[in-house]
């Protein structure tokens, strides 16, 4: 058997010259890994059934039950069994982006119904009677309210933050009392706030109020009155000349929507200010800085959009220019690194000689600064640094000398990738499709998980509260009747606990010597969790695995579509003959023939990722057991599966590329890709490192260019937009530019990886004869010292 026949049997392709040849197995394809596709479809059908069951039988209200400051579930725990709504003492303190992490700092209590009237202690304590004030008072507990006997007691409780100083007519939203504006509120707004021209910041100055309560009341009242003023031509809000009550009633209902839109900036400024306050000294300065940041963002949004659009265009132009710029950028970077290492060697050797000839006494201090100075004044430190830097210089220099030819191949392939991306321009925007699918998968998995988590019976436990010192209270709580077996730490029912459990030491004796039971105040029947049935727990596990499998499948689909697109470009002998709608054809080819292969590869990754999640769960559970052997075993297993997942991601990516080229099954494609890579190991390592470094330099260059251009444009054109801090829009532009460039160079990286495997296939499959011509570019053939021989007809016509 001849060599040609062996190659033909090996690859199953005709070896005659054909200018219409589109690459290995591009025209003759069949469905691959069909059993895996059927398994994936059945799995998705089962996932859909679980989602339908979860939505039908689940109740998200169980998960949305609010919790008060005493860790009691409103309407569920025994002390607040009939109080389903949550009331906030000061709702403004909850406007903070860190609230989901740190919680809202204001006191929160469960109430039977949200307040239907407005209450402002600083403006009402003289006008209303004691009985009416007491009826409107909302305190932390009923015990605190029961101790109030006079207005002085009210003032004391309010000053101690045991009762709310003010609140506004509210309405329940998800069982949480939120502000509800109404015309009756106008009666409580002081007229001087409507007629005076002072701003909120002026009112918040210490010189304009005599006490902190007055400051809060004025600020709150002013925030309510901001909807009542008319906008003037200069953009400022000025009060109109009419009676406050008439003005209030006339303007409140008409301007409520407009005012809420205006308040958006204020609330956003407050959120940013609260976030800055965690890292900035001074709450007042932080709030002012937050307002300035939001104002700068609002004023410069058009500049930010233009900068992002320019970054997008610059990324496309840069990718197109990489066919000429990749070599200068890379070689300049390599020589820059070598030059920097030489400078570092000179500096470290000089420092070593200096400190060797300069005897010093160590600084006898226990602080960090003294330790650093001692290290820097030690000649051995500079000796070790000079040796380390010298070794790095020698290693990098030798690598560049030995791998110079392979570096030239990597640069040439980078140029080919630029040509491919420029030829099939639609690939740049294909990641948007993947993002949409990812977002849909995340939303579906989270929704199903929440509904599944809400299925089951509520479980309660009898517990004792902690006092202010963090110690367990010693209240004696006796249970009788159906609750006679209730003990601290055991399961309980809140309704039975409320009826049959009491504190005998706090009971009182009436006129006829009959004991009046007093409910337990420090011992409660509290919500523990939702007890999911075993089948629901398995359904939750199914949902987690489904999300992993689907997310890896979406990523694999995107990789194979792009790989098929760039493979078609490479295996087109004359690149100008690349067919139109190449991306659409690759999309259809992947969807019709290779979904099973994607399901197989993504299943393997999903299983490995699930094992890693299980190991993390076990590690969290075993943290309380201080066992060095267990920790060592878990650490080794976590490291092993992390390495395994990283290797499988690399192997799967190349397997998808081989499948896009040859149209074979996943296992065959993975085996061919692995063998091909192992036969060209040095080329693979060189290309991977060179392209990663080149893409990093390119993204850094574009991002820095966008930031610098934006900053200097704002600095040199102050008349276009006036800002407090030019760094605010510049920072936003830098972040957006990095994300944009990451997307573009992600596609570029896929193109280079695909063309690299095609190049290796081309080198092993073809020899440049008319029967087996090379498909690589002339530059690559020049680097390898190869060329194509023209067929006899073309040679004679030439």
From TrEMBL:
Subcellular location per UniProt equals: Cell membrane; Membrane
Membrane topology value? Multi-pass membrane protein
Q: Does the keyword Transcription regulation apply?
A: no
Mind telling me which InterPro entries this protein's record contains?
Choline_transptr-like (IPR007603)
One GO CC annotation = plasma membrane
One Pfam family cited in the UniProt record for this chain: Choline_transpo
Q: Which GO terms describe its molecular function?
A: transmembrane transporter activity
Q: Which residues cross the membrane?
A: 34-55, 301-322, 329-349, 382-403, 424-452, 540-571, 592-611, 631-648, 693-715, 727-748
Q: What is its main location?
A: membrane
Keyword annotations from UniProtKB, A to Z = Glycoprotein, Membrane, Transmembrane, Transmembrane helix
Q: Which residues form the signal peptide?
A: none
The entry assigns this protein to a family as follows: Belongs to the CTL (choline transporter-like) family.
Purpose = Choline transporter.
Q: Which PANTHER family match?
A: CHOLINE TRANSPORTER-LIKE (SLC FAMILY 44) (PTHR12385), CHOLINE TRANSPORTER-LIKE 2 (PTHR12385:SF14)
Q: What is this protein called?
A: Choline transporter-like protein
Recall the taxonomic lineage recorded for the source organism.
Eukaryota, Metazoa, Ecdysozoa, Arthropoda, Hexapoda
């Amino acid at each position: 058997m001849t060599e040609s026949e062996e190659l033909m049997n090996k690859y199953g392709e005709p070896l005659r010259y054909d200018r219409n040849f589109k690459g290995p197995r591009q025209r003759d394809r069949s469905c691959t890994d069909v059993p895996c596709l059927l398994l994936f479809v059945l799995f998705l059908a089962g996932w859909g059934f679980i989602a339908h069951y979860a939505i039908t039988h689940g109740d998200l209200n169980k998960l949305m039950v609010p919790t008060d400051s005493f860790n009691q579930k409103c309407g569920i725990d025994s002390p607040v069994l009939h109080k389903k709504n949550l009331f906030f003492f000061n709702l403004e303190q909850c406007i903070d982006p860190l609230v989901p992490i740190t919680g809202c700092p204001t006191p929160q209590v469960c109430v039977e119904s949200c307040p239907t009237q407005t209450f402002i202690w600083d403006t009402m304590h003289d006008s209303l009677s004691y009985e009416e004030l007491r009826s409107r008072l909302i305190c932390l507990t009923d015990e605190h309210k029961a101790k109030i006997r006079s207005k002085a007691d009210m003032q004391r409780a309010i000053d101690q933050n045991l009762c709310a100083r003010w609140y506004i007519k509210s309405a329940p939203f998800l069982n949480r009392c939120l502000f509800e504006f109404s015309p009756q509120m106008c009666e409580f707004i002081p007229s001087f706030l409507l007629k005076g021209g002072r701003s909120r910041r002026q009112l918040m100055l210490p010189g304009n109020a005599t006490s902190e309560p007055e400051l809060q009341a004025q600020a709150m009242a002013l925030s309510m009155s901001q909807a009542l003023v008319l906008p003037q031509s200069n953009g400022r809000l000025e009060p109109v000349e009419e009676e406050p009550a008439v003005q209030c009633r006339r303007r409140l209902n008409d301007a409520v929507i407009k005012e809420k839109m205006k308040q958006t900036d204020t609330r956003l400024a407050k959120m940013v200010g609260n976030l800055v306050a965690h890292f900035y000294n001074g709450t007042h300065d932080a709030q002012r800085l937050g307002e300035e940041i939001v104002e700068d963002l609002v004023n410069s949004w058009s500049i930010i959009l233009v900068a992002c659009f320019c970054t997008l265009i610059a990324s496309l132009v840069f990718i197109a220019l990489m066919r000429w710029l990749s070599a200068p950028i890379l070689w300049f970077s390599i020589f820059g690194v070598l030059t920097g290492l030489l400078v570092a060697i000179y500096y470290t050797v000089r420092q070593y000689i200096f400190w060797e000839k300069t005897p010093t006494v160590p600084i006898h201090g226990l602080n960090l600064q003294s330790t650093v100075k001692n290290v820097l004044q030690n000649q051995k430190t500079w000796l070790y640094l000079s040796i380390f830097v010298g070794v790095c210089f020698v290693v990098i220099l030798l690598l560049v000398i030995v791998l110079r030819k392979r570096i030239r191949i990597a640069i040439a392939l980078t140029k080919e990738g630029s040509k491919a991306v420029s030829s099939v321009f639609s690939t740049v925007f294909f990641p948007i499709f993947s993002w949409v699918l990812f977002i849909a998968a995340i939303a579906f998995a989270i929704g199903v998980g929440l509904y599944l988590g809400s299925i089951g019976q509520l479980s309660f436990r009898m517990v004792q509260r902690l006092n202010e010192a963090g110690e367990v209270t010693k209240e004696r709580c006796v249970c009788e009747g159906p609750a006679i077996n209730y003990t601290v730490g055991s399961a309980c029912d809140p309704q039975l606990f409320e009826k049959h459990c009491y504190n005998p030491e706090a009971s009182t004796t009436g006129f006829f010597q009959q004991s009046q039971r007093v409910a337990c105040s420090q011992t409660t029947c509290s919500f523990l969790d939702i007890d999911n049935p075993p089948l629901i727990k398995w359904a939750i596990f199914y949902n987690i695995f489904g999300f992993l499998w689907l997310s890896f499948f979406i990523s694999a689909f995107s990789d194979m579509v792009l790989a098929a697109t760039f493979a078609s470009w490479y295996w087109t002998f004359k690149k100008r003959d690349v067919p139109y709608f190449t991306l659409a054809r690759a999309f259809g080819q992947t969807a019709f023939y290779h979904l099973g292969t994607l399901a197989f590869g993504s299943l393997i990754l999903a299983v490995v990722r699930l094992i890693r999640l299980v190991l993390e769960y076990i590690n969290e559970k075993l943290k309380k057991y201080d066992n060095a052997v267990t920790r060592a075993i878990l650490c080794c297993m976590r490291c092993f599966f992390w390495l395994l997942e990283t290797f499988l991601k690399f192997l799967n990516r190349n397997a998808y590329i081989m499948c896009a080229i040859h149209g074979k099954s996943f296992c065959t494609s993975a085996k061919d890709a692995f063998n091909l890579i192992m036969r060209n190991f040095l080329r693979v390592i060189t290309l991977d490192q060179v392209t990663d470094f080149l893409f990093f330099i390119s993204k850094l260059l574009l991002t820095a260019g966008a930031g610098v251009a934006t900053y200097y444009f704002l600095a040199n054109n102050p008349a276009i937009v006036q800002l407090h801090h030019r760094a605010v829009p510049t920072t936003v532009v830098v972040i957006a530019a990095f994300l944009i460039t990451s997307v573009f160079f992600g596609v570029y990286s896929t193109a280079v990886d695909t063309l690299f495997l095609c190049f290796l296939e081309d080198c092993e499959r073809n020899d440049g004869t008319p029967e087996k011509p090379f498909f690589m570019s002339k530059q690559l053939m020049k680097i390898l010292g190869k060329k194509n021989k023209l067929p006899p007809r073309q040679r004679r016509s030439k």
